[in-house]
Each structure stands twice: as C-alpha cells, then as structure tokens.
Amino acid sequence: MVTSFDHNHSLWEPSAEQKSQSGVMRYMQWLTQEKGLHFADREALWEWSVTELENFWASLWEYFHIKASQPYKAVLSARKMPGASWFPGAQLNYAEHIFRNATDERPALLFRSEHHELVEISWQELTNKVGAMQQALRTLGVQRGDRVVAYMPNIPETIVAFLACASLGAIWSSCSPDFGTSSVIDRFKQIEPSILFAVDGYQYGGKTFDRRPIIADLQQALPTLKHTILVPYLLPQQTELPENLQATLLWPALLQQHSGQMVFEQVPFEHPLWVLYSSGTTGLPKPIVQGQGGILLEHLKTLTLDVNMQPGDRFFWFTTTGWMMWNFLVGGLLVGATILLYDGSPAYPDMGTLWKFAQDTRMTLLGTSAGFITACMKAGIEPGKTFDLSQLRCIGSTGSPLPPEGFLWAYEHVKPDLWLASVSGGTDVCSAFVTCSPLLPVETGELQCRSFGAKVEAFDEQGHPLIDEVGELVITEPMPSMPLFFWNDPENRRYQESYFEMYPGIWRHGDWIKITPRGSAIIYGRSDSTINRMGIRMGSSEIYRVVESLPEILDSLIVGIELPGGGYYLPLFVVLRKDAQLDDQLKARIKEKLRREVSPHHVPDEILVIAEVPRTLSGKKLEVPVKKLLMSLPVDKAISIGAMSNPQAIQYFVEFAQKVNKLKGKSSS
Length: 669
What we know:
Blueprint: H1 16-20, H2 23-35, H3 42-51, H4 53-63, E1 91-92, H5 94-98, E2 107-113, E3 116-122, H6 123-139, E4 147-151, H7 156-167, E5 171-175, H8 181-191, E6 195-199, E7 201-204, E8 207-210, H9 212-221, E9 227-231, E10 248-250, H10 251-257, E11 267-268, E12 272-277, E13 287-291, H11 292-306, E14 314-317, H12 324-330, E15 338-343, H13 353-361, E16 365-369, H14 370-379, H15 383-386, E17 394-398, H16 404-413, E18 419-422, E19 424-426, E20 431-435, E21 449-450, E22 456-459, E23 465-466, E24 470-475, E25 485-486, H17 493-499, E26 507-515, E27 521-526, E28 531-533, E29 536-538, H18 540-547, E30 553-558, E31 561-562, E32 568-569, E33 571-576, H19 584-597, E34 606-609, H20 623-630, H21 635-638, H22 650-668
Parallel strand pairs: 2-15, 4-5, 4-6, 6-9, 9-10, 14-15, 14-16, 16-17, 17-18, 33-34
Antiparallel strand pairs: 1-11, 2-3, 7-8, 12-13, 13-25, 19-20, 20-21, 22-23, 22-24, 24-26, 26-27, 28-29, 30-33, 31-32
C-alpha cells in the first residue's frame, strides 16, 4: 500500500491485457492496417493528432462510422482561431448516432433519486418516449434552430426532452432547479426560448423544494415562451395544473397523445446543438454555443480513446443539468454505454450514498469531483470495505485539482487496482484538455496526458512554451467542439476577449499548468487568481491542499491583493468545524504548515473565520470576484450575485473590503 507521496512509484499501472483490449489500442491498430501509420506509444500518437489535424479528425470520422446524409467538402476550411470551420458541407444529426446503439441486450438508463427507487429504462422505452416527445414538439411548432430550455434535474425525462430537441435540430439549454430565479432568467432570456420544460419541484438532502412559483416567474420574464411542459416529479399524482401557470401542458398527458417513428432532421456539422454557460462570476453569463458535429466527434473521441468506454459499460458522473458534465454523461450513449442518473445530495442520508449506488448498479466508471473525494476522506469512510465495488474499474475526478491526498485515499480506501482518472477541461469545449489514458501509469497528483487533438501547451507571459515549469494553459490549434460563437455577441467581441486577448490567435484558458517531460500535467488552479508574491507565483489549489488537510478546517479561500507602493496583502479565510476555534495555536499551525509545505512567501498576513466560502453554481470558489471587491470594485461590477450557489456568503466580503480599502489608503499615503 502506498502511504507517502513517492513520485518514483506509480499508484497504478495498466496490465498488458488492459492495454491490448483498450479502445485507443484498437484505434492505433486500425491506423496501422488502414492508413499504414505506426506509432511507438501514446505520446507519438498525440503528437500526430495535433500536428496533422486534418488527417487525425478525418480518421475519427471514418473510424467511428459517422453517418452523414451529405458528405463533407473539407475537414478544416481555415486552420485558425477563432474562425476555424469544420467539415463544411456535411449534414448529420447527433441524436441519430445515439439511437444506433439501441439494443434489447442492456438498459439505456438507470435512475435513482432520494425519493425514487432504482429503475431501469430500456432502449425500447427511451426510443418510444423520445419519438412521442419529438412529435409533441412538432405539434407545438418547434422547428430547427428554435431554442428549447429546461429547468430540470438529472432525471430520465430530461434525457428524453434533450434527445427529442436534438433530433429536430432545435437548440437545447438547461439549468438545474437549484438555480435561483434571477440566475435562470439571466441565462435563458439571452437566447429567447419558445419551449420550457420544468419540474414542479425536487428533493435534496431530505428536504423538498416547490418550484412552481419560480416557473410562474420564468413565464413572466421570458416573453418568447409559447409553451411550458411540466413534469410532476415531486407530486407524481398531480393531474391538475396550478392556476398561475400560463400555456402549460402536463408531461404524462402530452406523451400519451403522441407516438410515431422518430425522424432525424439533417443539419450542417456546425449547426448549434446546445447552449452552455460560463460560471458568470461577473456580468451576464456567457452563452456558449457548440455544434452538433463538433460535440459528436469530441465525445466519441474522448470517451473511446481516453476514458476507454466500451459498449455495455455502466457510466456515471455525479452532476446536475447546470454543469457541462451532464452533457458529457449523455455522450456515454454514443458509445453504447448504459448511463446512470442520480438526483439528490451525495451526502444524504450519509457519505456512502453514491458508493451504494455504484454497488447497486454494478457501475464500471464513477465520475465525481475533487471536492467529493476530499469530503469522503474527511468523513473517514471506507467504501471498499463497506460496499461491493467489484465492477468499478475507474474513478473520474474533475471540477478542480485533486490533491495528492485524494489520490492516495482512493487507492487505500476504495480499491488498490483502481484507475484514477483526474482530468481537466472546460465548459467552453464540453470536454477535457488534459485527460486520462488506459495506456499510462497513474502518478500521485498528476493528470496522465494531454487529450488527442488538443494542442495543450504552457506559455510564459511572452508566449514562449514551457516544459516542467508553470505557465498559462493555452491551446495552439483549433478543436471541433470549441464554441461556434457566443449567443447575441455582435462581431464576436466577448468571444475574442474571453480567450484570445492575451495571446492573439492562441486560446488562453485561464488555468496554470505544468507539463512534465513525460507529457503528464499538473493543474494549479485559475491563473487569474494566482498568488504572485515577491515574483513567486503559487496556484491557490496548492495552498488549499495544505490548509484543508488540517482537521479543524472544512473549507478555505485565499486572495492576494497588490497594494500601492509595491506592497502585497494576503488574507486567508477559513471555515471551521463546529467544535474548533481559531486561537493563536491553530493560527501558528496553519502558518507553519504553509511555510513548510508551500513557501515562506505564501504565509498569510491575516487568518479570518468565515461562515462559508462563496461559490459559483457549479461549486467553484469565487476567488476572482472577492479579489475584485478587495480592489475597490463595486459589488455589481465585481460579481453576479445570481451566479452564486450561496449569495449570502458575499456580504462578509463586502464589509471586509471597506477595511482593506482603508488599509490601501494608508499604504499609499
């Protein structure tokens, strides 16, 4: 058993059999047989995939038997960013590729929630329901290009609604029902939807939340809405519609009225599939538009060649419909996997909930976040002893960097022969830039490799590539799943500012990354919230790893503020366990641990207790908006309150900022 951070010792090595049976090895053999191409290892294949872009993506089109009613005229019309145009001329449909996998041999979906027992949905049932909903949407006047939005949890009905929408060439967008009214309106109003799918309410952490009043608010705020389709999820026996809802239809009745053979509207490769949103920490959330063909190819590539998903796998990611990982999870249907849906709190009734779900569903891949793994570690649970996880071969982790302790915990307390796949990407491409591979070992604290077709590099401030040094994560070649555009963004201004302002023609993602000489990588958190003290840059994730390893500390936030005259102010905010106190002894331990494990330059000037860390709706710490508050920006310029999961948490920092700004005034005088 590994008990220390030994970088000379791999935590996991794939066996010769695992390598030979992997999806990426089959693809490499196909390239040899069909194209006469030989690659010594994965790194050589990656190099070819980012150098010979057109040949690589064309090979995937052929390898995955992409079904197109019209052929493409070129692979890539212009190799530039922004402005790359992929597979012009091709006509296809994303949903059609999902239903190629319809089979009686295995279920399409498995679903459980806090108040629903485990159920299976067969491919036949899914086909019938999507066909009926497609006909219903047609009857309601939905056409290609229309926007269809959902205020729905991660339940089978949401999958049905999305697939019906995609099959028609309509454009999908979703928010989780835990989003507040203003957050939903800020997103949906921008894209002018004609249809809203919504649930009457949901349960989380054992509590029920009625969403009917919010649906009424949405109907008032979205003037383009023609119809609302209400799913009686919280009150399944409900047959009467609330009086305050306009032009609303009940899901069960609507499905009963329609049936029919599914039709797959053929659309251009770059026809919009869905609109995702940036976390929207300032200003309105950015509505990111991604294409049917780009997502189809990207998800087939990533799930098959990197995640090593095979037909018959049982694929789960703990996500809501407001995070891109829901869209990625749906992609499991493209490769013939059964996808597993869970709606509820991962900590209710206890931290064993998702591990029991893994046991009961015979899950093969469990996807989660670094935060969940850390929470399990702190709760002291041992899933490997408590549950039958014999089918589980892989745990995926994303959302934020997984600390080395998280890696070790998984191997010690879940399964010693586990493939731990820590990956990092973004909503912006609905995929991973830095990913996992069934051909490579797992090293403590590292992401295994760069994704095929993603030319990921680390740049210094002058735009020079770095190896074995921390730099800006950049993408230097286009990818098919990059945004087609932002909705309602004249002349692509917001798009240009978001990715291409620092390095013209080069995508800057906003993360710190170090690429090792072996081609693996370490992510150090967001580059715009990096602590840069005395010229020494430190990712906030490194500080959190050390601070949050102390048993008294549940959560933390750190920001660095440049003061006039060259000064630097570094406050650390901590959330304590109920029985803990921030006395001089604990402060001294925190400082000593940071001095020892991070650097003497990154010991905080002040440590303060807060009730909770402000977070985005997708769970990210709001470091940059807090930093902006402390740099004298007014609240409305620093943060979008509606984009927060816990708006009350920001009030502390508003008041604290007044104190800091007085300090800055003294510093400059």
